[in-house]
Amino acid sequence: MSEENPGRAPETGASSHAGSESGPSTGSGPRPGGRPPGGPGGRPSGGAGGRGKFFRRKKVCKFCTEKIDAIPYRDVRLLQGFVAERGKIVPRRLTGVCTTHQRRLTRAIKQARNIALLPFATRH
After folding, report:
1. What is the CATH code for 62-114?
2. Which of 6, 14, 22, 123 has its CA 20 to 30 A from that of 96?
3. Where are the domains of the chain?
């Protein structure tokens, strides 16, 4: 019986050693914290996994392509395309408008709001 006890001790020691190895190995995956690979929000970052889903075209400024210099504040139809449902001005990263035209667009939207052509916010 004394031979069995020493024989068991190395087995349990080896298994506890293997158990301690499995702990760090699970954390040393592709990303720390066990999160799936990809960008923020779990979206694929454009690698092999994200190629087939969506193709994002480079957004081009509508005003530059149509060579519009002055953005008229009276043209409510044009301005409404750059104002969200709740009345917020849509950011240029979503619309694709260049920086200079975004500034002019913002000024035109604010002018149209001040003379009551566009609403400041929607009613609930």
Report:
1. 4.10.640.10
2. 123
3. 62-114
